[in-house]
Structures
1.
Amino acid sequence: MIRVPPVSSCFGATEKQFQAFLAAMYVNYPGMRKSCGSCSLSSREVNLPDFHIDQFEVTNRQYLEFVRATEYKPKNSVDYLKHWDAPDKHPDWSSEFPVVWISQEDAAAYCAWRRAALPLKRSGKRRPVRQMGESLPGATPRPRPKPPI
C-alpha cells in the first residue's frame, strides 16, 4: 500500500465559473440560459486527510487466492466472473490483469479477507483521480502484461 498525502481542494463553482461554463456549452435548448442563468453553486474548501491505498488493482490471480482460501460463493451469481473458465479458474493469460465481473459485495468480501476496506462515498477518504497513464504519488508504474495474439 502507498500513502496518499492530505490535500485541500475547492469543491463546487463560483457564479462566475458557472456562467463561463454556460457560455462554453455546445448544446443549447430554448430557455436554457433563462432557467440556468442564475444558479447559485456554493464553492467551499474541502480538506481531505491522508490515507493508504493499494498501488495496483486486484488481479485475477489475487482474487483466485481469495476464492480458493474462503470457498467464496457470491449471493448473486449472474455475470459473476463470467470471463473465467470456471468458478475457480481464470484464463492463464489473464492472471496479472485486474479482476472484473465482480459486484461491490464481492469486492467488500475480498477486502474483509485482506483486513482492508473499500473507500466509502462519505468516509472522508478519496479515490485519486488520474489521467490515463498517470501514476499515484510515490507509485512505481506496473508493467502491463501483453494479451495473447
2.
Amino acid sequence: MWTDKLEQLHACEAGVIQAKTSATLAESFGKSVRGDYMLYLAATFATDKKDVVRAACAVAELVDPKSPAVGAVRSWLKGQCALPLPSSAKTQAAHAVLAYARSVEKGELAPAHATDVGIETVRELVKGGADRAAAHLQCVAIVRAGVTVTEG
C-alpha cells in the first residue's frame, strides 16, 4: 500500500492515520486540508522534487512576498546562482525553504524540511491574524496546483 512509504519515513502518526483513510495517494492529495501534510506528501511522492521547491517558495511567500532568500532559491532553480546561506532567511518559513532546497540539491529525500515550510508559514500567518484553517487551505491550493505526485 502507498502508505507504507510514509511509515518507513517515520511520518507523523496523525498524517499516517489520515493517509490510511484514502485508498490512493491521489485521493489523499485531493482531499487534504493541511498545508504541512500536503508538502510532506509532495516531497515524498512528487515526480519532480524541484516542483516541490517551487511550491514551497510560493507558500513561504505568503508570509514574506519579497523574501531575498526565497528569491535566491527561485534563481537557483533556474540555474542562475548557488543556494544562499541559511542566515539570509528572515522568516522561519524562508529558512525551511532553504533547508528543503539544500536537501533536493543533495538528492536527499527530506519531506520533514518541506513540512516545516507549511508549519512555519501557517504559524506566521496565524500570528498575523489569519484564520488557521484558511491559512492551511492557502498552502494546500499552492501545492496542489504546482506538484504532480505518483505512487510509483
